[in-house]
From TrEMBL:
Family: Belongs to the paired homeobox family.
Compositional bias segments (type: Low complexity): 145-157
Region (Disordered): 119-206, 222-242
Keywords annotated in UniProt: Developmental protein, DNA-binding, Homeobox, Nucleus, Paired box, Transcription, Transcription regulation
Residues annotated as domain Homeobox: 167-227
GO molecular function, one term: DNA-binding transcription factor activity, RNA polymerase II-specific
Residue stretches making up the Paired domain: 1-113
Biased composition (Pro residues): 123-144
Descriptive protein name: PAX4 protein
DNA-binding segment(s): 169-228
Subcellular location as annotated: Nucleus
A Gene Ontology cellular-component term: nucleus
Amino acid sequence: GRPLPTCKRQRIIALAASGARSSDISRSLKVSNGCVSKILGRYYRTGAVGPKAVGGSKPRMATPAVVARIARLKLEQPGLFAWEIRRQLHAEGICADSGIPSVSSINRVLRTLPSDLRLAAEPRPPGPRVSPPAAPPVPQPPAVPGTQQPPQGSTPGRRLPLSPRHGNRSRNRTVFSRQQAEALEKEFQRGQYPDTATRDRLAAATQLPDSTIRVWFSNRRAKWRRESKQQLEAGGAGDSPG
């Protein structure tokens, strides 16, 4: 980032005057081609060999008075954007046409404002809401075997929503008595796919609807397949070498 010494700059100009190309000068003096072109272009345009003055070439637009006015505008109207603040500064005549800070400069000023001033300018969220006291729990009637009961703690007659993959459908779990479960399990041991006559006989014996019996057998088959797979995996792991 430092400027080239004057002796090397003069060497670049001398080589260019002798007819050397910029790429050859760059390779010979181990200087970038862009640097050679910039030095030569400035020499041909102004005749200057030395570097420009470092720093202070551009006047500062965000003076203390401008920064104070930007902070006041943001405090009075927190929703103002940087381009609106810039237009307001021009309308008030605080800055000349050539001295108005850019939008990025105004955003930089807003970011560096003191924390207390920034908090005062930001809109405050509404206060916390006080929730009403919870209603006492409603006692639930005892469960009747073979009927559908809502989960504990829920309002009677209200269905709990399922996960999004099930859409808007909802269901309740059926509670089976011990006699119903034994009858269904006994029939499952005879056959996993009961026909219509078998389901009618089970419906009469258990007082369950045909749809519930079908769902129970479907779930039981899935459980049986899962248990069989676990037993096979356990057996395979036991036969494998240590």
